[in-house]
Design brief:
alpha/beta; 29% strand; two-stranded antiparallel sheet
């Protein structure tokens, strides 16, 4: 298990030299316009990379239609262009006006965003509370994509489905960050799987080519020599 945090502009300026954590999920922005890119996204991304802290990102959604969600996904991709992430790119769905649409429409909205992100070569995931995920997102979506579930006030979440990250608290204290910060536990080795699959800006590791062998025969002064030559 890895212990991590998630951050946004709400944490203000972070002293990354003092932060000690296994991973970070950074908000890259919200809504449908590039002007809504998180004001501290670049600084937080650089802070993680400079400290060699594995990171992922999330986009906060206000979408109420699949088309709006797809637009948000395109803006998210613009915001994170050229960056590498060791953790998934998450769709954050929790706005009351969106949830009020019901499970079928919420699931279609989520799928529209996730599909765009996945087609762009990123590991796509969905974030929300345990209640929201179980009541507004179909099991098909939750089993298809990475899940990051928020569930506070318990020693262990009883979320009814597979999940990779559990956001266990929103009142954590971490050196280098003023005020509260969300605390997360991760149960999947996303960095290894992301790099192995060649996602999130990483190139897939080429398989080691099989060594080729061939027999050789040399006849010299009436003596016959034979052996096996290995070619790299």
């Amino acid at each position: 298990m890895m212990n991590g945090i998630d951050v946004s502009e709400h944490q203000g300026t972070i002293d990354w030299a003092k932060v000690n954590t296994d991973f970070v999920i950074i908000r890259s922005g919200y809504g449908r316009e590039i002007s809504q890119k998180d004001k501290f996204f670049e600084a937080n991304y650089s802070g993680c990379k400079n400290r060699k802290i594995p990171c992922g990102t999330y986009w906060y959604s206000y979408a109420v239609t699949p088309d709006e969600a797809a637009r948000e996904a395109q803006v998210c991709l613009e915001a994170i262009k050229g960056k590498k992430f060791e953790f998934p790119v998450y769709f954050d769905i929790e706005e009351p006006k969106t949830l009020a649409l019901g499970m079928a429409k919420c699931s279609a909205i989520a799928e529209a965003f996730l599909n765009v992100i996945e087609k762009a070569g990123f590991w796509a995931g969905i974030y929300s509370s345990k209640y929201n995920l179980e009541n507004y997102i179909t099991e098909q979506i939750r089993s298809r994509y990475a899940v990051w579930v928020a569930h506070y006030g318990v020693t262990k979440t009883n979320y009814s489905g597979k999940f990779g990250i559990w956001q266990r608290s929103n009142t954590g204290n971490v050196s280098g960050i003023a005020g509260n910060v969300d605390l997360d536990n991760c149960y999947v080795d996303y960095p290894a799987e992301v790099k192995s699959a060649g996602l999130n800006g990483y190139n897939k590791s080429p398989e080691t080519p099989a060594k080729r062998t061939k027999q050789f025969i040399i006849v010299e002064n009436g003596i016959r020599w034979s052996g096996i030559l290995t070619e790299e």
